[in-house]
């Protein structure tokens, strides 16, 4: 079974659905422009529902240190996800300064984007291989857009990785079969409306990844 991350959780009910279904990671979004954004206090309350063995991932977009410090002071996290334009040096700096594993998202649209996965694999603990967001997109991820998964066939990187971008309960099994992804991450594909998770879709997604 591929490991599953359910991202953008905002309610205890949906955290319970993700954990109960067997998700290995739950994601809390600390990016104000997202319809899935939570405050540190909300994430702390949700994180308290998460059992040992399930990692609480905080998603940030080009965060300054002060935001990371303030968030971590209130909301215990197990992994920092960087989903902006952070350079490899910045990834290394965040990892060293905050003492947590870092998952770096890399946007893929064509084969020319793949070398970045090698570069980030030298510094990040995990890679998140996501679709590259359109230039005019408000969000750098969480847009329900997929990329051509065939670009990943036969590729290997230095770090564990999750596949993301446009995954749904209906396509996740095929995505894993084609790419060999050891893990998958989903946000909008388990929602009934932007920012509104659906417990049945969460369960169907985890079952599809099994
Ligand atoms: O989910 C968000 O709102 C979000 C905001 C800013 C950056 C990343 C975001 N989500 C991440 O993007 C992937 C793919 O999303 P989707 O499944 O295509 O909707 C998601 O797994 C999150 O890690």
TrEMBL record:
Keywords: Amino-acid biosynthesis, Aromatic amino acid biosynthesis, Isomerase, Tryptophan biosynthesis. It catalyses: N-(5-phospho-beta-D-ribosyl)anthranilate = 1-(2-carboxyphenylamino)-1-deoxy-D-ribulose 5-phosphate. Pathway: Amino-acid biosynthesis; L-tryptophan biosynthesis; L-tryptophan from chorismate: step 3/5. Its EC number is 5.3.1.24. Residues 4-206 form the N-(5'phosphoribosyl) anthranilate isomerase (PRAI) domain. GO terms for molecular function: phosphoribosylanthranilate isomerase activity. Belongs to the TrpF family. This is N-(5'-phosphoribosyl)anthranilate isomerase. It comes from Paracoccus alcaliphilus. The lineage of its organism: Bacteria, Pseudomonadati, Pseudomonadota, Alphaproteobacteria, Rhodobacterales.
